[in-house]
Structures are given as C-alpha cells and as structure tokens.
Amino acid sequence: MSDNAYLSISGVDMTFTKGRTVNPVLRHINLDVKRGEFISLIGHSGCGKSTVLNIVAGLLKASAGGVIVDGREVNEPGPDRALVFQNHSLLPWLTVYQNVELAVDKTFRGVKTKAERKDWILHNLEMVSMGHALHRLPSEISGGMKQRVGIARALAMEPKVLLLDEPFGALDALTRAHLQDEVMRIQTELHNTVMMITHDVDEAVLLSDRIVMMTNGPSATIGEILDVELERPRDRLALSDDARYNHYRHEVLSFLHEKQRKVEPMARSARASKAPEALSA
Ligand SMILES: Nc1ncnc2c1ncn2[C@@H]1O[C@H](COP(=O)(O)OP(=O)(O)OP(=O)(O)O)[C@@H](O)[C@H]1O
Q1: Confidence of residue 258 (pLDDT cuts 50, 70, 90)
Q2: Which sequence spans correspond to the domains of the chain?
Q3: Under 8 Å between Cβ of 95 and 134
C-alpha cells in the first residue's frame, strides 16, 4: 500500500464454491487509489469486475486479502461507500425527493438538523438537474432521470468512495452522453474518489484518471493500468479529434481485443457442434 492511497485493495483473491464446484474468479488483485481519483475498471464480461466492486462495497468478503478505505478495513457495507447500479434501485412508492431523503436521514440524522437535511436533499437533486421533478414517482420519470436520482442519492450520502457499476449501461446514447458530462462536471466540483465499471472504451477514456484493465477469468487479475493524462474539464467533441485521446482509446482496445481476446462460448459451442462432422469426414 502506498502512503497516499485512500482506497487500497491488497492481495485480493476470490473463489466461489458451491458443492463440489470451485470457481476461482479473482487472483492477486492489488490496487491503490488516491483520494479524488476517478478509476474505471474494464474487462470482458464475466471476468470479475462486479465482484471487485462488491468486495470494496463490503457486500462480499474476499477469500484472501482485503480492502482499506481511509485507514479502515472494510468488513461490511457502509455509507462511506455508496453504490450506483446499472438499473436504478429507487423505491417505487417514494417520490424523487423521498428517495433521496431516506438516504440522507439515515446518514445525517443527529448530525444535520431537519432544515439542513432538506437543503442538502434539494442541493443534490439540483446538482443532477432534477430539482424540477421532486414530487414525481419513479414510474413517472425517464430512465435517465431515474439514474440521475440514483446518483444524487449516492452523492448526498457524501461517501468516501463512489462505486458505479455500469451506471449508464441501460441508457440510450444521447442520454448516456449527457449524464457522463454531468458526472464529469460534478467530479470537477467535488473531487470524489470514484471506481466505475464500464464496458465502454470511450466512456472509460473520457471520464477516468486511470483505466484498470482486467485479464480474462478464471483467476482474473489486473493486466494493465493506463494513466489518462488529459486535462480537465474534458470536452467530448474536442477530444474526438485529439491524438492523445485516440492513443488511449487504441491502448484499451488493443488490450481487450488483442492481448485479452475472448473466444465467446457461442463460437466454441458452434465449433464443438461441427466436430463430429469433421471427425466423420
Ligand atoms: N455471489 C456469487 N456466487 C457465485 N458465483 C458468483 C457470484 N458473483 C459472481 N459470481 C461469478 O463470478 C464470475 C465473475 O462475475 P462478475 O459479475 O464479477 O463479472 P463481471 O466482469 O462483472 O461481468 P459482467 O461484465 O458480465 O457484468 C462469474 O463467473 C460469476 O458467475
């Protein structure tokens, strides 16, 4: 662990065992994240990205090794690590305001007065441009808006670490771009420490300070880490013509599609089903 690590994942192994089936998913995951850093985790489907995030969140216990956040070992979930999932997890019977209120009351009751808590809820909803829809139910707003509320709820808990599991994955391209810009703007303002899973190479390059690339499983580990040294604020249009941006993009694509090329199970089974023919020919 380096001296200035705010979040430290050290020697993490994870093996799932069910009956006699043993699935070694992660091996020797070591990562130090600085305070205020935005890290993306990228890798092929099933390599273990969510497992890493769930261990940091305290929802899973690593088979070996552990996680330290701001000097404290992670043993269980806590409000210092807020999670946002791909599919919003808003309570359908509560309004936009009440969904955030629930988290704020849980985190700050006894610390902030009722009036302060109200201001804080409004502030966070305004930060994600949702101040106009406070009294709507989740069923009355769009997918992008729900995701915004989920992000406001997470930010309102003032977590030490924000954990984003494909937060824009279920959104259409335009909404996704808009929300990415919003997250970048908030990040510039608040300097959150963020760990985000994504499958989108452009998203990873645009948003991250570092991109952590995972090898294929079983026993996946960190293959390479790419420093993205693009100054902030970042402008997606200007960057699309930027040679450095394209270089970073190329590095990630080359890792995923050359160094860690994945043979999809469907292709394997297609070959397997052809095998008898080949044998009989
Ligand atoms: N709670 C669990 N119990 C048993 N096996 C699990 C559990 N969680 C994950 N796994 C297994 O661990 C492996 C990695 O899963 P994980 O969801 O972490 O991958 P991922 O990289 O996030 O995948 P994707 O990109 O498709 O979301 C898979 O083989 C999965 O079946």
Answers
A1: confident
A2: 5-80+163-280, 89-158
A3: yes
